[in-house]
Write a structure and sequence with these properties.
Length: 260
């Protein structure tokens, strides 16, 4: 048990510093405090019926494990959760949604709880990557398209796609990326045809309709796929403007501290 001292409190050394220096020091301290208490978390989500080929990404591996060192500069924590868990959207700064199962009779469907999570992520303004696949995944593709206000388009058999638009996702890419058997969702901003599109009010959600594009082993000889993977990592890691704005009141509060 600690006992409070009744002796007079010593004068703070900051009382002898100029007000301007106090303000500068306070702002710097607030920035450090803000960065330490807002360590970024990437939530990796798993559908109840995960694709039989295994997860694309886990905190330690997956078929897109080469993303992990690219994500490390942006995230302090990799968390995992079932896609259908409650209140997932408030537990992380960005999201990576693994591929659901495809196959016979056009694949599995998302549960109502999983659809709720996907809808919340799309509406949250937080960055997310959501994978889907070719027509063997048509059941879940239709569900995802409905959430984004788009429509599913067949893109099966496409092997190369040229970049479109001015998105940061195509920075440094000088030619087409290689694609396997993909599918597309029309209704968002096209990045690579309909197979790679941005949706959401602020285009914070990236839909990728072919898991091979960022696979570690599918297209190792195409440098544009490698650059695209780097751009996706940066896309996920860019902080929300709202998170920066939330820090401003704290900084201003520190800046107006006065000498006693």
């Amino acid at each position: 048990m600690s006992i409070a001292s009744s002796s007079p409190s010593p004068r703070s050394p900051f009382q002898f510093l100029p007000v301007k220096l106090i303000k500068t020091t306070s702002i710097a301290a607030a920035i450090l405090a803000f960065s330490s208490v807002n360590a970024a978390t990437l939530m990796i989500l798993f559908p109840e019926r995960i694709a039989s080929v295994g997860p694309l990404l886990t905190p330690t591996g997956g078929s897109q494990s080469s993303l992990l060192p690219l994500l490390d500069p942006y995230f302090d924590t990799y968390a995992t959760s079932p896609l259908g868990a409650a209140d997932v959207v408030n537990q992380a700064d960005a999201f990576f949604v693994n591929l659901i199962e495809g196959g016979g009779t056009n694949g599995a469907t998302y549960t109502p709880e999983e659809l709720q999570t996907l809808a919340e992520i799309i509406a949250s303004g937080k960055r997310a990557v959501i994978h889907f696949e070719w027509f063997a995944w048509n059941n879940s593709n239709v569900q995802l398209a409905a959430l984004t206000g788009g429509t599913v388009v067949s893109a099966a058999g496409i092997t190369m796609l040229l970049p479109e638009g001015t998105s940061s996702l195509v920075e440094g890419i000088t030619g087409p990326i290689s694609v396997g058997f993909g599918e597309g969702i029309q209704g968002g901003t096209r990045v690579f045809g309909d197979v790679v599109t941005l949706v959401g009010e602020n285009e914070d959600v990236l839909l990728i309709g072919d898991a091979n594009i960022m696979s570690d082993s599918s297209f190792p000889s195409n440098p544009n796929n490698v650059i695209f993977r780097q751009n996706v990592a940066r896309f996920l890691g860019v902080p929300e403007p709202s998170s920066i704005l939330l820090a401003i009141p704290a900084l201003l509060l520190c800046a107006v501290r006065r000498r006693r």
